[in-house]
Design a protein that fits this description.
This protein is an alpha+beta fold. It has 12 helices and 28 strands.
Length: about 625
C-alpha cells in the first residue's frame, strides 16, 4: 500500500452523541477492501479473535459504538492509562496516553451479532463537537493494535516486540489525519487561525475602510481578497499584535454549516487525499475563481501555496515569537530545565512572484537544537553565525521557520516556591524570586504574574504581604501580580518575596478523624518507643498530605500539572526588546528579486509558555537522565 495519507471516512458528533455530519470516500474504501482481501479473505486474525470490519459502519452504528466506549472508558477521551476499571480489549488496557487521541471502537453489526474493531480513529474535540477521522492503514497494523489490547502486561516495555509508539511511527497517515481533524475543527468553529505578526501603523487601502478599522485590533490578517489590493487594516497604536482568529464562543451558538464543510472537504481533500488544508486558499479559490489577470509572469512557475497574485501597496513584516518553557525545582538532585520554542512569522505583501532572501543572525549564540522551515523556503548557505534563507512567500501570514533553543542567559524568573499544609484546610507558603538577573537592556520585563492554582480546593482567604506587587484571589487560585503592564523593568534585576498562608473551605467528604487524633494515629499508642517531637511533626504533615491526596478526585489528563493537590505555581510574563535565543533579522539585509521598493518591518515578542515553579516541599515529576 502506497505511503502518504488517505482518509477512509470522517464523522462529526454533537454533545448528544448524535452524528450530525459524515463523509465517506469510496475510492479509498475500495483500496481498504482490496488490502483486506489480499491479506486474508475474511480479515480474521485467529490469534486475536477479533474480526476486522471490512465495511464502514453506518452513522447510527458508529454513534452507538462511541457511546459504548464513553461508558467503558469513563469519558470521550478515556482513561489513557490502565486503571482498575480498564477492561481487556479496551484502549486504556494498552496503557498509553496517546489512546486518548487515537481511539478504537467496537462496532456491533446487528445482522452478524459480532463486534468489529475500527482503528485508528483520530479524536479531536472542538467546542461541543467530537470529530473522528479514520485514515487508511494496512490490516496488519490494525491486527497489531488488537494484539496490544489483549496483552497481559501494560506500558511500552523496553525490548518488547510490539509497542504502540513503534507502530504509530510506521504510519505517516496518522499525522495527516490529525491535520485533517484540526482543519475541520477550525471550519466547524468558524475559526481560521493564522500566525501572529506585529505591524506598524500605515494606511493600507485608505478611504472608508481605514476609517472604519483604524481603531480596531484586527486578528488573523489574511489575503482572501481578489487579485486586487488585499485590505490590511492597521491599528491606531504604533505597534499592535495581529494574531490568529479570536477565540470565540462560536461552537456554543453557531449551527453546523454543512455546506461550508462539504465545499472545504471536496476542495481540500478530493477522493480522500489531503492536498491543501489551508482554509484561506480554499475559500478564496472557491469564492473568486480565477481570471486572466491572475496569470503569473511567463518566466515563473506559480507555486501551489500562492493561488493568487497580490496587487497593492508592498511591504514585508517579520515577527519573532519565542515561548520560554521551564521547570524550576530548586533541588540538588533534580536540575532545573529551561528551553525556548520559537518561530519566525512572516507576511509578504509583494506583487508578482518575487524571491526574498536574508541572513538569519545570532545562530552562534542561540544554541539551536531543532530547526525547520516552511516548504516555500530554501536554505542554500549555512555559516557559523548566520543562516541564509531564500523563499517565495505565500499569501497571508505564515510561519517561515520554527526552532527549539536553549536559553543561554539563564531563566528570566528564578527562585523557589514552598507550600506546607499545617492542617487539612490551611497551608503556609513562601516565594523567593529573582527577576531578570543578568538580563541587560534593551531586554525589558513588561509584566510578570505568579499564580498558585488549587483545582480541587476552594480558596476562602489568604494572609500575607508581598515585598512588591499586589495579590488577588479567585475561587481556586491565588494570583500575585509582581510587575503590571506599563511598569516594566529594564537593565536591572529585582528580588521579590511573598510569605503567607491560604485557607480553604472544609472538605465535602470528611473522614471520622479529628486533628487531635492525627498524632496518635501516626505515632501509635502501642509504639514501643516514643518518637521525637520533630519527627512527629514531619509525620503529621505527611499524614495530612496523604489523607488529602487520597480524598482528591482524579484530575483529567488535560491538566497534566494538577496530578497532586498543591504541587506547583505558574509564572506568566512578557519580555520585549530582543529575543532570548539571540536570533534576529536585520531589516536592512533583506533583499527582494526582482528589486522593488518595499519597507521591511521587524519585531520580537517573548512570552512565557509552561513556566512552572514546583513546590520544593511537595512531589514533582521529572525526567530520568541516563548516566554515562
Amino acid at each position: 500500500m502506497a505511503g502518504g495519507c488517505s482518509i477512509r471516512a470522517l464523522w462529526i458528533l454533537n454533545n448528544h452523541d448524535v452524528v450530525v455530519f459524515s463523509r465517506r470516500f469510496p475510492v479509498v474504501e475500495r483500496r481498504w477492501r482490496a488490502a483486506c482481501k489480499s491479506e486474508n479473505e475474511s480479515c480474521l486474525d485467529e490469534n486475536v479473535g477479533i474480526d476486522v470490519l471490512p465495511l464502514l459502519p453506518t452513522d447510527s452504528e458508529l454513534a452507538s459504538a462511541f457511546v459504548d466506549r464513553k461508558t467503558r472508558e469513563g469519558s470521550a477521551r478515556g482513561f489513557g492509562i490502565r486503571v482498575a476499571q480498564s477492561a481487556e480489549g479496551s484502549d486504556s488496557w494498552v496503557d498509553d496516553p496517546i489512546t486518548r487521541h487515537i481511539i478504537s471502537l467496537y462496532v456491533n453489526k446487528e445482522d452478524e451479532g459480532e463486534n468489529h474493531l475500527l482503528w485508528p480513529l483520530i479524536l479531536h474535540i472542538k467546542g461541543h463537537y467530537c470529530i473522528l477521522v479514520l485514515p487508511l492503514v494496512e490490516p496488519r497494523h490494525l491486527k497489531a493494535y488488537a494484539r496490544m489490547c489483549k496483552r497481559p502486561d501494560c506500558g511500552n516495555a523496553v525490548g518488547m516486540d510490539e509497542s504502540l509508539s513503534s507502530l504509530l511511527l510506521d504510519l505517516p497517515s496518522i499525522t495527516g489525519a490529525f491535520m485533517v481533524a484540526h482543519a475541520i475543527g477550525d471550519v466547524v468553529a468558524g475559526e481560521t487561525p493564522e500566525p501572529e505578526v506585529v505591524v506598524s501603523v500605515s494606511p493600507s487601502v485608505g478611504g472608508l475602510l481605514d476609517s472604519l478599522t483604524g481603531s480596531i485590533g484586527i486578528s488573523g490578517i489574511s489575503a482572501r481578497a481578489k487579485p486586487a489590493a488585499a485590505p490590511v487594516p492597521a491599528s491606531s497604536t504604533s505597534s499592535t499584535a495581529l494574531g490568529g482568529a479570536v477565540a470565540s464562543d462560536a461552537p456554543n451558538s453557531r449551527p453546523l454549516d454543512k455546506d461550508t464543510l462539504r465545499n472545504f472537504i471536496s476542495s481540500s481533500m478530493p477522493f480522500g487525499t489531503p492536498l491543501d488544508l489551508n482554509y484561506s486558499n480554499i475559500s478564496a479559490i472557491k469564492l473568486y475563481g480565477f481570471a486572466s489577470s491572475d496569470l503569473p509572469p511567463a518566466d515563473r512557475k506559480q507555486p501551489a501555496w500562492k493561488p493568487y497574485i497580490y496587487k497593492g501597496k508592498q511591504r514585508i513584516i517579520f515577527t519573532i515569537h519565542e515561548a520560554v518553557n521551564a521547570a524550576m525545582y530548586d533541588r540538588d538532585e533534580i536540575p532545573d530545565v529551561i528551553s525556548i520554542s520559537g518561530q519566525v512569522n512572516c507576511r509578504a505583501e509583494l506583487e508578482g512572484l518575487p524571491d526574498v532572501s536574508f541572513p538569519m543572525t545570532g545562530l552562534d549564540t542561540a544554541h539551536i537544537e531543532v530547526l525547520s522551515f516552511h516548504p516555500c523556503a530554501q536554505v542554500p548557505e549555512q555559516g557559523v553565525d548566520k543562516q541564509a534563507v531564500m523563499f517565495t512567500p505565500p499569501l497571508g501570514n505564515f510561519v517561515l521557520m520554527r526552532y527549539q533553543a536553549l536559553c543561554g542567559i539563564g531563566p528570566p524568573i528564578k527562585g523557589f516556591y514552598q507550600l506546607s499544609m499545617v492542617s487539612e484546610n490551611e497551608g503556609a507558603f513562601l516565594f523567593k524570586l529573582h527577576l531578570m538577573e543578568r538580563y541587560k537592556a534593551p531586554l525589558t520585563l513588561e509584566f510578570c504574574t505568579v499564580t498558585m492554582p488549587f483545582p480541587r480546593r476552594r480558596v476562602v482567604s489568604f494572609d500575607g504581604t508581598p515585598s512588591v506587587g499586589t495579590v488577588s484571589t479567585t475561587e481556586h487560585s491565588v494570583e500575585w501580580k509582581i510587575i503590571t503592564s506599563g511598569r516594566g523593568i529594564s537593565g536591572k534585576s529585582i528580588e521579590a518575596t511573598f510569605p503567607g498562608t491560604v485557607k480553604f473551605a472544609p472538605w465535602q467528604t470528611q473522614r471520622s478523624i479529628s486533628s487531635g487524633s492525627v498524632l496518635g494515629s501516626v505515632a501509635g499508642e502501642d509504639s514501643d518507643t516514643e518518637p521525637e517531637a520533630t519527627n512527629s511533626l514531619v509525620n503529621v504533615e505527611e499524614f495530612l498530605l496523604e489523607k488529602m491526596n487520597k480524598d482528591l478526585q482524579a484530575v483529567d489528563l488535560e491538566e497534566p500539572f494538577c496530578w497532586q493537590a498543591y504541587d506547583y505555581a505558574k509564572v506568566s510574563f512578557k519580555i520585549g526588546g530582543a529575543s532570548l535565543s539571540g536570533i534576529s533579522i536585520d531589516p536592512k539585509s533583506v533583499s527582494i528579486f526582482p528589486a522593488v521598493k518595499a519597507p521591511v518591518e521587524f519585531s520580537i515578542q517573548v512570552t512565557s509558555g509552561e513556566y512552572i515553579l514546583w513546590n520544593t516541599l511537595g512531589k514533582c515529576p521529572s525526567a530520568a537522565t541516563t548516566k554515562v
